[in-house]
């Protein structure tokens, strides 16, 4: 299943990560958004990143960035699912909050405006 960027931003972490799987391209992505793009950081775990999505790349809201990792061997031993974390400021796991508030009112990817 495809994974889309919740909002625009720049990839600051990508690849294998403890608890999220590996080796790269399996693992995680963290996208940091400017205030104009919605602010904060979003962390996507248990994914396989697309080849063009790497640290330093800027992504658009709704852009495909990864797929949900279907392979338990490279998915930290767990069944396929997406782990989405929302950090309201900079990357700081201690500030994680419910991502559903940020998703309220969002359109499905690849739908018309």
Could you characterize the architecture of this molecule?
The chain is mainly beta and 113 residues long. Helices cover 4% and strands 35% of the residues. The chain contains 1 helix and 7 strands; from the N terminus they run βββββββα. The chain has one helix at residues 100-103, and strands at 2-4, 9-15, 26-33, 40-49, 58-59, 64-68, 83-87. Strands 1, 2, 3, 4, 5, 6 and 7 form a 7-stranded antiparallel sheet that branches. A hairpin with a 6-residue loop joins β3 and β4. The longest helix is centred in the last third of the chain and has 4 residues, at 100-103.
Task: Describe this structure in a few short sentences.
The protein is mainly beta and 113 residues long.
Helix/strand layout:
Blueprint: E1 2-4, E2 9-15, E3 26-33, E4 40-49, E5 58-59, E6 64-68, E7 83-87, H1 100-103
Antiparallel strand pairs: 1-6, 2-3, 2-5, 3-4, 4-6, 4-7
Main features:
113 residues, mainly beta, seven-stranded antiparallel β-sheet, 4% helix, globular
The biggest sheet amounts to: 7 strands, antiparallel
Which structural class do the helices and strands define?
Answer: mainly beta
The shape, in one word, is: globular
Mean pLDDT comes to: 93
Q: DSSP strand (E) fraction?
A: 35-45%
- What is the tally of helical segments? 1
Please tally the β strands and state the result. Answer: 7
**Cα-atom radius of gyration:** 13 Å
Give the end-to-end Cα distance, rounded to a whole number of Å: 22 Å
Q: Report the helical percentage.
A: under 10%
Give the SSE string: EEEEEEEH
Question: Which residues form runs of ≥5 with pLDDT under 50?
Answer: none
């Amino acid at each position: 299943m495809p994974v889309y960027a919740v909002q625009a931003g720049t990839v600051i972490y990508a690849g294998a990560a403890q608890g999220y799987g590996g080796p790269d391209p399996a693992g995680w992505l963290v996208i940091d958004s400017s205030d104009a793009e919605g602010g904060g950081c979003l962390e996507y775990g248990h994914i396989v990143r697309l080849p063009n999505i790497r640290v330093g790349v800027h992504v658009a809201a709704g852009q495909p960035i990864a797929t949900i990792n279907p392979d338990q061997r490279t998915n930290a031993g767990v069944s396929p699912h997406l782990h989405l974390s929302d950090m309201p400021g900079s990357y700081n796991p201690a500030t994680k909050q419910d991502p559903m508030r940020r998703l309220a009112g969002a359109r499905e990817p690849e739908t018309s405006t």
